[in-house]
Amino acid sequence: xxxxxxxxxxxxxxxxxxxxxILLMSLVLAGCSQGGGKGGTEAKPTLQExxxxxxxxxxxxPLKISEGISSxxxxxxxxxxxxxxxxxxxxxxxxxxxTGVHVKYIHPNEQQTKEQFNLMIASDELPDTIEYDWTGxxxxxxPGGPEKAIKDGVILELNDIIDKYAPNLKKKLEExxxxxxxxxxxxxxxxxxxxxxxPSGLVFRGPMIRKDWLDELNLPVPTTIDEWExxxxxxxxxxxxxxxxxxxxxxxxxxxxxxxxxxxxxxxSFYIGDDGKVKYGPVDPQYKxxxxxxxxxxxxxxFDKDFALTDSKALDNKMLTGQTGATVHQxxxxxxxxxxxxxxxxxxxxxxxxxYPSLNKGEIxxxxxxxxxxxxxASKAITTAAKNPExxxxxxxxxxxxxxxxxxxxxxxxxxxxMENGTPVYTNQIKNNEKYTLQQMVSIYSKPxxxxxxxxxxxxxxxxxxxxxxxxxxxxxxxxxxxxxxxxPTDEESKELGxxxxxxxxxxxEMFVKFIVGKEAIENYDxxxxxxxxxxxxxxxxxxxxxxxxxxxx
Length: 554
Hints:
Elements: H1 2-6, H2 10-13, H3 21-33, H4 47-54, E1 69-72, H5 90-99, E2 103-106, H6 113-123, E3 129-131, H7 145-151, H8 159-165, H9 167-175, H10 177-182, E4 193-196, E5 205-210, H11 211-216, H12 225-239, E6 249-250, E7 253-254, E8 270-272, E9 278-280, H13 287-299, H14 312-320, E10 326-330, H15 331-342, E11 351-353, E12 374-382, H16 389-397, H17 402-410, E13 417-420, E14 423-426, H18 428-431, H19 438-445, H20 464-473, H21 478-481, H22 491-517, H23 525-534, H24 537-552
Helix pairs in contact: 3-6, 13-22, 15-20, 22-24
């Protein structure tokens, strides 16, 4: 483990927090030490050796066990409104009662998840299970991917564990060949208990706009770049919007994603071209056209002058105070949250989903947000520090059982939902709460994201505008062009990819801001592309192409 971290010192250089590294280190190590893990420095018993100590767990829930486990995972921000720890929520208490397993949850700070994860791994003090992205595909995932994490002695290969101790998940993998292909490495290793999305939950983000403003100004919902420009000008001139279009830009992540960028038949990251080959959008010739557009909108005051400083709280304020009339956001965290907040203060306030923009009227957008059935970031791995892997596996497998699925999706029968004609329906306490929103209430009675299968009957939309937005945002060619998030480069490829993309991402984001705000001449775009190529982007594309080819052959 020490060798792993010495080889990955660049991770610490990426820490961009508002506290000193020493303070962050002390806080994280203190938090991780509560997990009871021993990391990879202590010899682990084999499953066979461990079986004698765990064989009396039983085969039904609640399990016959007195010991507890530890789990490192994020806490939904809506739940933070009520409780500081998942164990204290109605969901956490019900899960402990139903499984018979006491869990000590360790929650990273939402704004520092990546940094705290890196420091936890470096500390060799691991909990029993960790909910995180292990794919190695991005800076916010495990460097080197799952094969490297297994080789480093951080997490366990789960093939035997799932086969012996997770009958519910095993059955789902046997029945769903597509899912089975997604959740293992190229060499066939299972490495997580996965979050499984249902088909109706694959699209949940896109452009949204103030419909009440459009109606007042007698304007249609914009569909093309030209229509968007005219609309944003009207918002600025006739509604007094200081930032007609605004998005969050946190941690170097431009949350506009591929909205507007996709109009130029490219992406803000890696994507699959019409020829089936992997490409990197920010060096495409047409990416310059997108930069030119947003440079113009920024200069004209149509795009938020403070976009580089806009986090979620700032965006909330801008949307709710009329400074902003359009953004790119999620169904619940955007349309639902903001319409809930304004329904008493301004009953006319209305947001609707807008199509991903195109250059020409009637074009199907080249790309947009669309998730995959397997969500790596909300999946859990079992660490090598787990003293009783069988117990952890059985605890995790509960979520894939019929009883567990109801708890994870809907909460507690009689409190958060009732059964009506065989269908779970939220109670008034959840859907018509006078003080809290549906999203806030479901966050403490269920688990919005995590290792379980989302139920197709679950719907958190509280407005018809949300249901309609899903239909609008789904009308793209995203399924064809989005690069899967669960590709698994080899150890060597991952090392190379990590170094390349750290340098590329840092430079790309620096230049992105400079181009938009006018500090870098747009005529220097070719020099910018040349520098990214010098940093090795062509090799990164080759690595992803190889990983994609191997995935397609699984």
